[in-house]
Structures are given as C-alpha cells and as structure tokens.
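Record passed on here:
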Amino acid sequence: MKNHKLKFLIPVLAIIFAVASAFTTSARAEVDDSASMIGYINSPSPCTAVSVDCTPIENNNLCTYQGQFVYDKLTPTICNQPLYRNQ
C-alpha cells in the first residue's frame, strides 16, 4: 500500500514543483537603458567616437553631442544610423 501511495505522490510533487518554478522565473532579462554607449560624430574626421547617453531605439529626440548629431557605426568608415536620446 505504501508503494502505491509513493508512485502517486512523486508525479504530483513533480507537477507542483514545475508550476512553482514557472511562476518564480523572470520572463526576460532586464536591460539597463540608462547606460552610456559609444556613438559617433562626423567631426573632426568621419566616425569619431564619443560617449553618450543614447539608444538605437527610435523616438522623437535625436541624440546630439556638443551640437552635432550622433550616429551608430555601420562599417569602419560609415556612421549614418541615427541614435536617439534615452527617454
């Protein structure tokens, strides 16, 4: 009789453990949008690196550094993907 109860109890405990684990895990990793990133300006030479608080995620505020627009680097000499200010 004890063996029969144990055979029933082990799968039930496994299901309870699986359900509890599903509720305690995170759906996605948190991303720190406030971190600075490397952006590029086209002065004094093409693709000059600068540290800015910007993101590639589009919004209405283009990223600037000392009055110049900041871009993301696509190739070593092409920097024309605009960056945007973090919201």
Notes: The chain is about 25% helix and 25% strand.
